[in-house]
Predict the structure of HD superfamily phosphohydrolase.
Amino acid sequence: MLPREKVFRDPVHNYIHVQHQVILDLINTPEMQRLRRIHQLGVSNMVFQGAEHTRFTHSLGVYEVARQICDNFQRNYPTQNGGADGLWNDDERLVALCAALLHDIGHGAYSHTFEHIFGTDHEEITRRILTDPSTEVNKVLRGVSPDFPAKVASVIDHSYPNPQVVQMISSQIDADRMDYLLRDAYNTGTNYGLFDLTRILRVMRPYAGGIAFEPSGMHAVEDYIVSRFQMYQQIYFHPVSRSMEVILTKLLERAKELFEAGDFDERFNPRLLAPFFNKNFTLHDYLMLDDGVLNTYFHYWLDYPDPTLSDLAARFLDRRPFKSATFTTSSANLLPAMADLVAAAGFDRRYYTATDSNFDLPYDQYDPTSATPKTQIEIMQLDDTLEELSTLSPLVGAITGKVTGDERFYFPKQMLAKPGTPGYTATIAQFQRYLLNGEVIDPQLLQ
Amino acid sequence: MLPREKVFRDPVHNYIHVQHQVILDLINTPEMQRLRRIHQLGVSNMVFQGAEHTRFTHSLGVYEVARQICDNFQRNYPTQNGGADGLWNDDERLVALCAALLHDIGHGAYSHTFEHIFGTDHEEITRRILTDPSTEVNKVLRGVSPDFPAKVASVIDHSYPNPQVVQMISSQIDADRMDYLLRDAYNTGTNYGLFDLTRILRVMRPYAGGIAFEPSGMHAVEDYIVSRFQMYQQIYFHPVSRSMEVILTKLLERAKELFEAGDFDERFNPRLLAPFFNKNFTLHDYLMLDDGVLNTYFHYWLDYPDPTLSDLAARFLDRRPFKSATFTTSSANLLPAMADLVAAAGFDRRYYTATDSNFDLPYDQYDPTSATPKTQIEIMQLDDTLEELSTLSPLVGAITGKVTGDERFYFPKQMLAKPGTPGYTATIAQFQRYLLNGEVIDPQLLQ
Amino acid sequence: MLPREKVFRDPVHNYIHVQHQVILDLINTPEMQRLRRIHQLGVSNMVFQGAEHTRFTHSLGVYEVARQICDNFQRNYPTQNGGADGLWNDDERLVALCAALLHDIGHGAYSHTFEHIFGTDHEEITRRILTDPSTEVNKVLRGVSPDFPAKVASVIDHSYPNPQVVQMISSQIDADRMDYLLRDAYNTGTNYGLFDLTRILRVMRPYAGGIAFEPSGMHAVEDYIVSRFQMYQQIYFHPVSRSMEVILTKLLERAKELFEAGDFDERFNPRLLAPFFNKNFTLHDYLMLDDGVLNTYFHYWLDYPDPTLSDLAARFLDRRPFKSATFTTSSANLLPAMADLVAAAGFDRRYYTATDSNFDLPYDQYDPTSATPKTQIEIMQLDDTLEELSTLSPLVGAITGKVTGDERFYFPKQMLAKPGTPGYTATIAQFQRYLLNGEVIDPQLLQ
Amino acid sequence: MLPREKVFRDPVHNYIHVQHQVILDLINTPEMQRLRRIHQLGVSNMVFQGAEHTRFTHSLGVYEVARQICDNFQRNYPTQNGGADGLWNDDERLVALCAALLHDIGHGAYSHTFEHIFGTDHEEITRRILTDPSTEVNKVLRGVSPDFPAKVASVIDHSYPNPQVVQMISSQIDADRMDYLLRDAYNTGTNYGLFDLTRILRVMRPYAGGIAFEPSGMHAVEDYIVSRFQMYQQIYFHPVSRSMEVILTKLLERAKELFEAGDFDERFNPRLLAPFFNKNFTLHDYLMLDDGVLNTYFHYWLDYPDPTLSDLAARFLDRRPFKSATFTTSSANLLPAMADLVAAAGFDRRYYTATDSNFDLPYDQYDPTSATPKTQIEIMQLDDTLEELSTLSPLVGAITGKVTGDERFYFPKQMLAKPGTPGYTATIAQFQRYLLNGEVIDPQLLQ
């Protein structure tokens, strides 16, 4: 413990309270500081301009929420017998706090897109940052005890034996989600993500099976689930953010293709990215990357001789998204014809058309037959029996187990040139016959 | 005018309302989009972690404040005779809005530090971005009229003839300051910067000499001045932010020195920075830079053979600030002896000691003999006579014309090693005798 | 129009903007000022202590929301032909604003409870306040035109011919509801009632059939419906507020019974209430009442010789609610036996037991066969076709047409005395066998 | 201690946490519940319409701030020797919390005005409510120990020996002021009163002489002082609120005069006020009064035969304030002539003219020669020496020891009738020659 707690000012939680030297030392590692250079929401700031916050502030926020949960548990539900009574054992506090702080440490620049192109795995990298003796994070954790790095890693990968600790960090209502909903709402300036954190923390309670909620807090939990649902629909799945991700994907794919073709122009060599193109990167290489490093190479490529690469780099840096329309299983067969028309208009269909689907399961009951069974949210009745949330809340019941989202077809904005304007051609006109009210439709059905 | 206004969601103003095609086109230029990659507060996020916002969101905010001022002026004080009556001529709206949006367009990465090292001048660059035919910004402005780029530039450099437009963008209470105080307060999570923007906008009014304020709004203006004063003392002058700037300065100085010595290791060549080291850069070169580009080269230099360069790069990226103590005119003579001790402890004194002063003049009356005379804030009485703010407000009177701030001496944290710890030596002990309660003192006075 | 708009500071809308002399004059009538003395949420401040706001601030808030709707309609959808095109005719502004401001003018002290006991009807009284020549409100409205009072009244009773005006004031998403949700949330300090008013106002649009919403605002409307649902469940139906209403009802019933028995002790005569006990009241009598007047008589009755009356008065003034348990159709048959036990414990069952049911229909589609058909919420597609909200939103679909709420049985707190405490008797023990987890149950089922 | 803490939802502090049965019992006394019926800001809601909050919510807020101070003191500065070390002795917690909760219990309806007319003294009454065995409050306090009521009373009257407890409740930066500034700002919807409560609580620390502040919190304390100054200037001294108080004063004076003349019309007898007119009231009588009771009698008097009484009652209930102008020592001699003109215009000068002065001393150093010496705010340096706040802060220095406010002359609005309107007469014209820009001036000086 620190002789006197240290605080970090934070717009969401007002202050982040640090009470252990270990936590302070972890925050000061290069691996944690690197998260200051990685946006929490990737390219969402291209749509919600305030979304400029990083994984660093989020990580401290998750730590703070976990700390408050521990405080509440210790004040109100302390174990009398080392946890055998199903109550909270405060010896678990440090491992829980470290896991909360470090849960995102393996995320890379433009995380999901990067993984998709280069085959990296942020969960695997998180484990390595925690357990590889070369990192500062590992060094700090080792200082607690030799097996402490592995313990923290096991909380993050859900194999830690105490379900209270695991669920605090990772479940359908965990410190991670609670922080990002509030923080993303604050920074985007929307209020969909607001819910009553104080009340939820008050009604959380440990039990032998993990974490449950008191009946008086049922509506606050319901409100959290609904908020999360709305944030996905409104912010995280916004079609223009996804469009910028599509462009980023195409840009990296094109660079990789050129690189793998073996004649990448040395003047534009992305020195820090090269190990990834070469499929031969170390943990150190990975930790050298951040959003700014990738953007730097995109600047290089503005002048690259390949017109596709340079154009896609400019579209990304200058924010010129593709347009899109939704499609369904029954209209998906129309996409090849539409892509043909995009090609006929002069675009390389491999890089100037794309599909993207985004679906979320806002909440689900536990299903042992599922590939990824969820820890359902339990309301603990006065007589200690548990009732699953969706059986009590008609609102939550309405969205339980139902994936929500859409599939979109992306194409250049030029395809929407209006009649009477210079870019409008017969090909363009033909293309537009496949669109109605933002959806892909079969033109023949309208005739 | 756009057929239907377009809005951008913003956490500070809720929505930014865009009503002109010209404004929309300006926002979409690469020069404006580049501001998304430059932090508004430089390295302040190293202290106030939420301060991750950029000059892009600020620029849109300044635009929005100016737009609201124009709306109020046009609704309540429209001229009847082209402005000869001292009232608002709405023909000035577009030039005012463009100047508001573009006023920061010339800022570079880590703006003030960069200028200091490389001799760039963001005001001069702003002018060039507006008036050089090579930029997209110029192209959009030219579309209004051939002389429009120069008109917008003249608002920004204060030479535009209409003082209402000039003061709206640049005065002691302008759209720029009002946005940044609110935005910095929002993102840092402090409330020092809060004031009643709505009320101030309501009580602003045009007159022949520029912009004045109605008597009923005197206290709201007073509150704004006090807020600004407090933000400077609390946020902008924070000693740890300044420490990170000191490190950045030393880092760039060291790189420049190595570069100019002519044997910069080619493997670590900062391609996009090279024109600046070579003192031969174009506007295009300047526009290729942003915070992430500089950080990328700092990553390169982590492995550079020069230990000073690599250490300073690591200190900057990993946030390891120098410590500091305040000094005064009378204690400044002690600094050489202290620097000697830093050198004796093994640090290169050129790169591991520094002084830094930060002073602000929170508000001043107009003084024609000043090098930079201020436009004073005028309260317009019922009978149209003007009274200067500080004559009415004792709070403002207390800080009018008084610069506030401090001077600090920076040195490595190792110099503060505590007795009994490994790093504590006789040299260190000697050094610490120069410090008391965070101030530099003469050890002889204490004996 | 006023030469310069006048503003009222408001914590919810920041400022209320008044631009017409008629509106200012209406605000200054005694009938409007009286609303300052009537709580918006009746006795809810007994549970949510911040809920101390009145119908006056709410009324100004509804006016302000309506004003903003008119501004948006006039800016974006002005009619070109007097409304025949289904767009907004700004000649309707004043009647809409007056109706918004005055819609609650007929509410009395402790409104719903009072009506229930004394057979008053606030809608009928609203009509009279608007149209009776004796009121100041009528005088101000008459000043516009002789038929203006009746026009405003017809907006409030839904018979006004323009459905845009009617729906603005009264529909499932109207200015009234939008203000009270935000205001009640602000004052109670809960965030269930928050939704994005600015966005909803932006996406509202007039059409021939009334008011519809643009597709881009669908989620904001959804969020509003969910917020409203949650406010009902959490705030408006709180069992302790309802308990205080039960006590108020019983208190007024007892006073009425004593009064009607003809021997009401003259020393405790409720002078301003007497006309209502005598079933012979004038509009002037009604306008003399407010929450404080009723409370004054409750103070008188603290010393009344009838122990039931004095006890109920003390319970109300000193906030000593009854306790309650939920019951259902199948357990309702147990209530007589429970009331017998309350009587056996020494309480007059007529005044110390009660049932109360609270149900709300959060949203419904239009149903011409309903007794009170609802104006459903329509989303207007790009091709001007309408789609009803619940067909687009799974969240809204989940609660459409479903009433939600509960029925409760109320009884004195003494019936819950714990075993081993002085008040615990065999009768009390017997009573408690009917309760489990806050519900009424059949004790025989547990044996 | 309660087995589990109980919370009250509060918009300012989010939750009020109650952890002692004694506190819960005190909240449930009739004397505390009565505060729900007394507005915190008297008639200020006539100007800032949201200011509808009561002394009840404020009292719970002061309790909550004090509770948080105790928590911080106990966590960070617990005494090791019963307080002899100058640190916090948590045995003082309960007496401090009770004093915080009860500090305003003696306030009456329209507190200051009522005291002025009827010679009551809320501090004396507070003491009686605490120590008189007839009250419920006394009964609860006696339950702690026989001398506990007197101990709590001694904290409130500053005679309690522990200065930490006294200063927590009553000093220039105490729990009372911190709650009311935040609460009044929240309810009026202004942000002048906002300051960083969390930070101030963090930097408060006990010492032998009372409570001091750490140097790192100097600016937060400065901000609090400035906020308080601004709230007085903007909210508490608003000329229209004071006008409504003037009318209330005149109304009660007239009623008293009629009553004392001995022929008060029995039909309009203010039963609960009569003991005060008769100068023969008991504590029980006092506790029967609240804002609503007084308003009820004002309703009665609307029909009273005396035209002055009925007119003043209507002005108060219907919010028809007098107008005012500031005057100074040098212009005070003009007021009799102005009052003559008001009389000449047909108004009884005793009831239709008035002067009112409002001055505040925002902050002062300790001055042993003062009639009411202030406990100055001390900043405790690293070496435990104390520095008084105004020596460190130029902002605070500017307002230290200086009273601020104004004196106003009040008169009927009719005196401002404009030329050309029906009410404009030679007398009115003559009167208006004494006014310029809201100030009383000597007409001869303008000739």
Remarks:
- The two ends of chain A are 75 Å apart (CA to CA).
- The interface with chain B takes residues 8-12, 14, 28-30, 33-34, 36-37, 45-46, 48-50, 52-54, 56-57, 60, 186-190, 271-272, 288, 290-293, 295-296, 299-300, 314, 317-320 of chain A (CB under 8 Å).
